[in-house]
User: Fold this.
Amino acid sequence: MIVLGIETSCDETGIALFDSEQGLLSDALYSQIEIHADYGGVVPELASRDHIRKILPLIDEVLEGAGLKKTEINAIAYTAGPGLVGALMVGAAVAQSLGLVLNVPVIGVHHMEGHLLAPMLEESPPEFPFVALLVSGGHTQLVKVDGIGRYELLGESLDDAAGEAFDKAAKMLGLDYPGGPRIAKLAELGDTSRFHFPRPMTDRPGLDFSFSGLKTFTLNTTHKHAVDGVIDEQTKADIAAAFQLAVVDTLSLKCRRALRQTGMKRLVIAGGVSANESLRTALELMVEKERAEVFYARPEFCTDNGAMIAFAGCQRLVAGQYDDSALKATPRWPLDSLPAVN
Ligand code: KG4
Ligand code: ZN
Assistant:
């Protein structure tokens, strides 16, 4: 079954073709970062309009990349939520119209399920069951995964998501959006021992997170070291390094706790922040001590992309699941409400 995947939940138009027999055939991504950069974050209306401009040319591009005609598409998967409603509507409208024209089944995919399953696109995919850490711009969740659609939420952020914390801290340091990769780069030049940032909620039991305190701590530290409103470059790098280490330590500690609590030996990390090299290194070290394994996707499949939506949709479509022809755009949609496959 050849599935066309369409991702338009935020500021990236991601399109891909996934074949249930042969795997990923082709994928294309257009990032709107430059459009939103001047505003320091995503402007929903601009995002929707740009998805409209890019979606059809990108579909043609992936078809050409795979050497296929539109009529060879067997099914369509699109991101139905969570995300920006206008941006989601663009993907939903294109998916459903194309589905009607081609007379093929269409399914609305949960964006975070797409992220969660993305490491399965890699060469040695994780087997079920496992613990998943989902760390994106909008979500920070620890999930026990027994199979596709068999998700038990173990813990989540009570306030900001990890990616959001990176983005906000970056803004305070005068770095552009998205802040995660920029903080990571600056942190390479920083000294992690100069500042000590708190590790929120690690001194009490449980698997929930809170990142808003780190934001305040970053703000106070920048203010304290600013001279006439300007912070020198080394101090900025030291703050970035201390901030990143605090986030990484906190995530690592909670992942270890989740592995121990569930008795699982496999950890999957997914979502934009899982592209972070320091986080990957820290988790590699942690799982080694726990005699466990960690799995993640290649960096371009950690952030938003069409391949993960085509893959997740394909798993459900081959199991016989699909939607009616209504446009589905669900800005808020709990992951643990999804139906199971098998
Ligand atoms: O999964 P994603 O592309 O979109 C959402 O579903 O939200 O995640 C985007 C988030 C942004 O907050 C971005 O700053 C963060 O992921 N991010 C990173 C890195 N790459 C992206 N955070 C830390 N280190 C990175 N290398
Ligand atoms: Zn995402």
